[in-house]
Amino acid sequence: VYVPPNFCSTGAQHDEDVPLRVLLAIHGYGGKPIQEIRKWMDVADALNSIIIAPMGTETIKSQNKLGWNAVECCGDPVLNEIDDLDFVIHGVMEVFLNQFSDSSSSSSSTQKNKRVNVIA
Description:
Helix content: 25-40%
Largest sheet: 3 strands, parallel
Radius of gyration: 16 Å
Shape: elongated
Strand content: 15-25%
Strand order of the largest sheet: 2-1-5
Number of helices: 4
Structural class: alpha/beta
Order of helices and strands: HEHEEEHHE
C-alpha cells in the first residue's frame, strides 16, 4: 500500500463530496508489488490517490516467481485454479475499504458513506 505524502494534509479524504481514489496495481507474471507501486507513484501523487498492489501467488517455487490465474503462462495459479478475483475483491479491497470506513467514521458521527473510485 502506498499513501501519497500530502494525502492526510489535504483534508480531501474527509470531504464526503470528494471520492477516495484507489489505484489497484496488479503486477505481471514474475513481477513484485513494489515494482507496481514505484511505477504508479507519480500518478498517485498527482491524483492524491492510494495505491494498493497485492501480491500474486508464488509459482514454480524453484524460480520464486509470483503470478495470477490469468493465462497458461502463469504456472501454479492456473493449474491450481486459484481464485484471484475473489482474493482481490474480498481479501484486499473489501478489507481495506472496511478499515478505511471504520477509521474515517470515528471522526464524524454524521458522515455519510464515502464514495470510492477504484482505478485498475
